[in-house]
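sry for the spam today, last one i promise. struct tokens for design, 442 residues
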């Protein structure tokens, strides 16, 4: 059986690593991963036929017995992928020093903050960062293995649905710096409670404290400040925050619908982001940039050039409406923040199309009722709720001011039959609800 050094030697001969046989362009190292509903080992030989240089497979798979010399059998392909990523991270050097890795996690805003940090750091450095939200036990290794000889800094996003996910991911990525965007009430089905969320996300701080790393900590967040104080009693952290930066969020309007901020000395931060809740993500990116030698002016220019995508904090003016598209995901804290932001938006007519929040376990009904109470208190011109969890909330508090739909498809049909115009509308819900299906009708 091949050892990690032998596998690494083969990896260095390849153009990249992939786990998708459909993405073979030539020269890749293919890993046949196995899950509950798929077995990538079955596509290993096909990957080689399509141009992959090597295929790493489970030793007990049919491909391992094929006699093909380019098939590399290992006891477990996922463990091999993670070990290879860690070995690559440990053996990548910049100017004689081991590559610096910034690890990032949190309940909300991970991907947006990662994109902003990457944009700011790219002013001065060649940065390799997590693509999209490939932040799990497969995505993190793939992100690390994308590091090449040009990389000067790496920004690695880490997601978690279970108590030990971050602990596993930091062992692979070995971050030198870390940032937790926030801790909120999400994935409670996996974490068990809010305390479970803090403990799980705090594993990033645990790793940094144990290995001499540094954490960027939002001093305005009492939960994060307390978590950091437990691990760094001497305050050996890098603090940031709206208050420390003396940043003022400017009120949005039809003329200026995107988030704007004013910093000291008259510096104006113009963005393409929807939502005042992104102000903290912006100051986090500026703080990271400052630590790595990038000026405030350079950081602000980089932030201003960032355009969000994938229905994350996007604002779009259609022929009939202004849409605040935050439909990629939802949990109680991000839903409350999005609704708070909608309150601040200056508009004659406002609406909210909200889908269920998933993975909240026993607290789901109570959390959906909180959202219902909040949205009813806002006096919106249109409220449409989607999903079984909101149906339960409406049973507890019936309201004629709310329209309920079983699915986003049903809501899209209703919107087509009942066109909405002249309105500023928040569209938000968990990934599984697919609220973006309503967007073409708005």
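last one done:
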């Amino acid at each position: 059986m091949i050892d990690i050094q032998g596998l690494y030697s083969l990896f260095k001969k390849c153009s990249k690593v992939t786990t998708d046989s459909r993405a073979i362009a030539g020269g890749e190292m293919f890993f046949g991963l196995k899950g509950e509903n798929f077995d990538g080992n079955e596509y290993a030989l096909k990957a080689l036929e399509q141009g992959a240089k090597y295929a790493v497979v489970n030793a007990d798979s049919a491909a391992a017995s094929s006699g093909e010399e380019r098939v590399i059998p290992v006891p477990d392909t996922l463990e091999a992928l993670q070990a290879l990523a860690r070995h690559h991270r440990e053996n990548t050097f910049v100017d004689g020093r081991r590559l610096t890795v910034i690890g990032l996690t949190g309940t909300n805003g991970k991907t947006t903050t990662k994109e902003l940090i990457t944009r700011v750091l790219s002013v001065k450095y060649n940065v390799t960062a997590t693509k999209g939200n490939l932040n799990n036990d497969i995505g993190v290794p793939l992100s690390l293995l994308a590091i090449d000889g040009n990389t000067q800094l790496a920004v690695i996003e880490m997601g978690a649905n279970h108590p030990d996910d971050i602990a596993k991911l930091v062992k692979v990525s070995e971050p030198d710096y870390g940032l937790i965007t926030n801790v909120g009430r999400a994935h409670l089905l996996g974490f068990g409670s809010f305390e479970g969320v803090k403990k799980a996300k705090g594993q990033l701080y645990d790793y940094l404290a144990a290995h001499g790393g540094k954490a960027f900590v939002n001093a305005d967040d009492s939960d994060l400040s307390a978590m950091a104080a437990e691990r760094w009693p001497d305050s050996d952290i890098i603090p940031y925050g709206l208050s420390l930066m003396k940043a003022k969020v400017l009120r949005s309007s039809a003329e200026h619908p995107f988030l704007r901020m004013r910093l000291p000395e008259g510096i104006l931060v113009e963005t393409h982001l929807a939502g005042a809740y992104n102000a903290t993500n912006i100051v986090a990116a500026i703080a990271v940039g400052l630590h790595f030698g990038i000026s405030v002016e350079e950081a602000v220019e980089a932030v201003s050039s960032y355009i969000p995508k994938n229905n994350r904090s996007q604002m779009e003016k259609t022929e009939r409406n202004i849409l605040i598209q935050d439909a990629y995901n939802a949990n109680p804290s991000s839903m409350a923040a999005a609704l708070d932001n909608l309150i601040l938006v200056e508009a004659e007519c406002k609406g909210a199309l909200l889908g269920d929040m998933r993975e909240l376990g026993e607290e789901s009904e109570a959390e959906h009722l909180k959202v219902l109470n909040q949205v009813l208190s806002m006096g919106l011109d249109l409220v449409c709720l989607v999903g079984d969890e909101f149906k339960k909330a409406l049973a507890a508090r019936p309201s004629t001011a709310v329209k309920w739909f079983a699915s986003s498809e049903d809501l899209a049909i209703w919107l087509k039959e009942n066109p909405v115009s002249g309105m500023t509308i928040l569209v938000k819900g968990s990934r599984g609800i697919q609220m973006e299906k309503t967007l073409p009708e708005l």
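The chain has a mean pLDDT of 93. ok im logging off now
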